[in-house]
Design goal:
Blueprint: H1 2-31, H2 47-54, H3 56-89, H4 92-107, H5 110-128, H6 134-159, H7 163-170, H8 175-204, H9 207-212, H10 220-227, H11 235-268
Length: about 270
Amino acid sequence: MNTRKNSVVSKLYTALILIFLYMPIAVLIFYSFNNGKTTVWKGFTLKWYEQLFKDDNIMNALYNTLTIAVLASVFATLLGTAAAIGINNFKGKKRLIIQNVSNIPIISPDIVTGVSLMLLFTFLGVIFSFEMGFFTVLLAHICFCVPFVVLSVMPRIKKMDKSIYDAALDLGCNQWQAFYKVIIHELMPGISSGLLMSFTYSLDDFIITYFTRGAKFQNLSIEIYSMTHRRISPKINALSALLFLAVLAIMLLINLRDRHEEKVRAQKT
């Protein structure tokens, strides 16, 4: 009886947490179909979605945001995976120290990272005569995304059987084939998680982008921030709804793929 009661309480508690987390998003999506500009419901409409795709400023900011997010996540995943493999090759205290150092950007406040990168890019801009913009924002996003990839890949490396690489070499693979077909294949769930985390963090970032964008570059978070000086258009509700659904779809696809891989491995064993 007590076990059943605890189960009901735990389910209720989980449901309340999920409602608390996702209710604001549900309200945002709901009002993206509101015919009025306020929180008063005035009928169903799709006009905000139509106007969204006709707004050149928002579309340009969205293009910049997605471009930065895709490039930063890809480069950060490559660098973070290589860094995780390199860190794992160290032994004892060296590996522990390097791993802790790689985690510092994660716990460091965004404003510290943003200001430090701004000072660095300003200093380099004086020396090499360039202005902050797309390239500096891309470098900044790669910089703060790499530690998340390392954090995602390292547990997979620790769980991996160290003998499978030698086994692949013994079975006829060269070093590159053994690395790509065996090591990368085993690390792929962690790599996929790191890629997704990098993409979402880059998509969501405001503070670091604000300090490293210069005067001309405009991404979505900066565009929305500039709208706070006047009334925010309901078009932002529509845009936020589409971004949320896109990220949700990516997460579902990755989870389905991971489950399929687990089933395949279970069948092989």
